[in-house]
Amino acid sequence: MREACSLDLRGEDAAHTKGFSSPGATTPVVMGSYMMVTILDVVISGLLLGGIYAVTAVGLSLQYGVARVLNIAHGEFIMLGAFITYSLYTRLGINPLISFAICGPVVFAVGFVLYRTLFTRLRTSSPTAGAFEGNSMLACFGLLFIIQNVAILIWGADIKGYTYLAFPVDLWGARFAANRLVTLGFALAICLVFYLFLANTRLGKAIRAAAQDPDTAGLMGVRINQVLALCFGFGALMAGLGGALISISYKIQPTMGLEYTMIALIVIVLGGLGSIPGSFVGGLVLGLVGSIVTHIEPGLSLVAYYVIFMLLLLIKPTGILGK
Amino acid sequence: MGMKKTTSKRMFTFGLVLLILVLAACAPLYAPVYTVILLTSILMYMTIAVSWALFSGPTGYISLASAAFFGAGIYTSAMLGKALPLPLVIVVGALASFCLALLVGALTLRLKGIYFVMFTFGLVELLLHFILWWEVTICGTTGRVVPPAGNATVFYAMLIILVILVLTVFIIRRSRYGLALFSIGENEEAAAHAGVYVTVLKIIIFAVSALFMGAAGAAMATRWTYIDPRIAFNPLISFMPVLMAIFGGIRPLYGPIIGAAIFTYLEEFLITRFPYYYMLIFGIIMVVAILYMPDGLVGLIQRLWKGISGRKHADT
Predict the structure, then answer these.
(1) Which pTM was predicted?
(2) B62, A134: Cβ pair inside 8 Å?
(3) What is the rounded CA–CA span in Å between residue A258 and residue A260?
(4) For chain A, does the N or the C end have fewer beta carbons within 10 angstroms?
(5) Any CB–CB contact under 8 A between B114 and chain A?
(6) Which site among B44, B110, B129, B250 would you substitute to test the A interface, given the most A Cβ atoms closer than 10 Å to its Cβ?
(7) C-alpha distances in angstroms, B279 versus A2, A150, A169, B48?
(8) Are residues B62 and A137, on separate chains, in Cβ contact within 8 Å?
(9) How far apart are the C-alpha atoms of B122 and B119, rounded to whole Å?
(10) Do A150 and B280 touch (CB under 8 A)?
(11) How many domains does chain A have?
(12) Which residues in A lie closer than 8 A to residue B284 (C-beta atoms)?
């Protein structure tokens, strides 16, 4: 039991998030330019980390904000996405960026079916919205154990990884692995596409209506069960894509989910529960904070996240963009 | 008919509890060492599950801070184990958790629903990572050695803690404070208007539940002999009691006890053979319990019993 669920917290890994982009890699001529490079280094590392946080948190935000499920198993969907991408690349040689088109729909289907069966049943059987939130969260705990251990049975409990686009790229004097920059680009693109989808399509409008008030939206002709299930599915999809991005530049492990869940939770509180733009901004902010803290005291980045999280809950639970 | 029947029923329950207690208390005399160790684990989970249900059952606030309070007890034991005798260590561990819970309670019990859940879980992770960082950076070593106590000693310590806990819960539930707690769970604002000191009551009960978790941690640490932050603040200690209590049934006092006994035995039985299947089964049972057993095993059995005894008023 203890091995099976011992969290592999990337606290140690976060210390290496900068990869080989340590300030020493550059040869500063003037002290001022050295400072600049360090700042650039920290900021870009932060954005790289933040991009991943943003994608996963937008997914969780959708699930909680619209579908009203505080998905504690969110990280397990991230892990699934990461492992599917890993398997496709190492077994079949499929490019990780192309395997998005495979792992996305798979994870989406898992999320959609789960909502249509498990959560719809819970929603209809729970007397109040509050009871549904509690029950669905507890059901997610169950899902967490199920998905995690199925993954361990399939892939084994070891840490896995592969190298893809691992050559260095020079950005104004600071050096980064190309895969991280690709990750950031894709993360931003995914969030943008999703935002445009929500803002401009008919289904997006239905989702926004359901976010405001599911019952009224249902009265207005929105097929509410369908839309909520789609939202949960899209949340899982974002998690899956986030996981695929993570697998490109980080080591992965079946027990990695809970930590990403916690980070995504922190981000959505930071951005204001249920606000999708807030989650995006929150992700980038938290990534920056992580990068700055890592630069000062490597072991403390996760501690800093939790301190921010708890202070936020106490002082401003509505988040930085909340009213 | 009612009066006589309830009295004899009560006598029967009392006798049954006493019998189980005597049998359990004598276990180290006749049972093999393995059984005593297993029973100690069962007692530990019972203690955590019952103290979790003491606060979270009636109020509906789902606390995931159990691991933090349990871990606080473990660390007290690790730091004071050499200097003080075991009973004193347990008392200090309990008080440490109590104080931690008072602080946390005063800070968080304004938070409701999901926010409270997230904060309590964040607390576990915060303590875990902070102590981990502290040990790695400041002390230079991770983990500590706890002076071991004998199997029988730990067993009796856990048994005494559980008995005191069950008596405490029984008394609290019977008192007006128990009713007040349930009223908070039903409708907090109405409870406040009816004259319940909502915040004070919540904080105190939260701290009392933490007190017993801390005591359990302090006692159990002596059995593990070596501890580090990942063992002491294992998030599973936060999740298991929730599942055990829900599986057994949150409302009745014996629900979490039954849930803890079944799950710990199941764990012991499965974990050596199929560790991952155990966790998988664990997850499946959790989902099924939430879907189909809203009142837990106890509720299910009561429903079945009513069905069998052929009463027409089986409530659904």
Answers:
(1) 0.82
(2) yes
(3) 5
(4) C
(5) yes
(6) B129
(7) 10, 9, 43, 19
(8) yes
(9) 5
(10) yes
(11) 1
(12) 142, 146
pLDDT at A240: 92
Contacts of B107 in chain A (CB under 8 A): 314
Determine, yes or no, domain membership for A171. Answer: yes
Average of per-residue pLDDT values in chain B: 85
Q: Chain B: nearest CA to A134, how far in angstroms?
A: 8
Task: Tell whether A281 is covered by a domain.
Answer: yes
Taking only the tens place, the pLDDT of each residue in B197-225 is: 888 999 999 999 999 999 999 999 888 87
Each residue's pLDDT tens digit, B167-193 = 999 999 888 888 888 888 888 888 888
Contacts of B286 in chain A (CB under 8 A): 138-139, 141-142, 145
CB nearest A138 (choices: B108, B123, B290): B290
CATH code of the domain containing A265 = 1.10.3470
Shortest CA distance from B63: residue in chain A: A134
Short-list B181, B178, B210, B182, CA closest to B73? B210
Q: Determine the Cα–Cα distance for residues A115 and A117; give it in Å rounded to an integer.
A: 5
Please answer yes or no on whether A314 and B285 come within 8 Å at the CB atom: no
B53: Cβ contacts below 8 Å, ≥ 6 apart:
B241, B245, B250, B255, B256
**Nearest C-alpha in A relative to B109:** A314
Reported as a single tens digit per residue, the pLDDT across B266-313 is 888 877 777 778 788 888 888 888 888 877 788 888 888 888 776 555
Q: Is residue A202 part of a domain?
A: yes
DSSP assigned state of B310: T
Backbone phi, then psi, for A175, in 5-degree steps? -110, 135
- Check CB contact under 8 Å for A262 and B125: yes
Residue at A4 is within a domain: no
- Please give the residue range of the domain that contains residue A188: 30-315
For chain A, give the percent of residues with pLDDT over 90: 17
Task: Say which DSSP state A162 is in.
Answer: -
